[in-house]
Amino acid sequence: QVQLVESGGGLVQAGGSLRLSCAASGRTFSSYRMGWFRQTPGKEREFVAAISRNGQSTYYTDSVKGRFTISRDNAKNTVYLQMNSLKPEDTAVYYCAATYNRATMPRDYNHWGQGTQVTVSS
Fold it and tell me: Which of 4, 13, 68, 76 measures 20 to 30 Å from 31, CA to CA?
């Protein structure tokens, strides 16, 4: 079992940057692939990025490629999402999640954080 807590959300102007963090409890963090998702009211939860157990492989949805970077520090049990060149359409609640599988669908992730709000003003 792993518990996840996100932080780092907030209000930023378009073109700005934010860095989200997700701290995991437990000693099995490095055994999980980690992902970031986002959700806006009335829409389904959307895949944003994922990272392999050792951090050497990363995956992104097309709309964030070149702007967002996912990374992890297994010694600190933390996964990050660096978000640059933010756009108003990036506004959402961002969630981190953990899975044993190579996956981009929310249903394949077993553990979720509570979410952190990101608001990008135009």
Answer: 68
What is the distance between the alpha carbons of residues 56 and 35, in angstroms, rounded to a whole number?
14
pLDDT average, residue stretch 85-103: 96
Among candidate residues 97, 92, 120, the one with its CA nearest the CA of residue 110: 97
Q: How many CA atoms lie within 13 A of 24 on its CB side?
A: 28
d(C-alpha 12, C-alpha 88), whole Å: 9
Sign of CA dihedral 13, 19, 24, 28: positive
Residue 11: CA count within 13 A, CB half-sphere: 2
Calpha distance 14→89 (Å, rounded):
10
pLDDT at 27 over 80: no
Measured from the Cβ of residue 94, the count of other Cβ atoms closer than 10 Å reads: 24
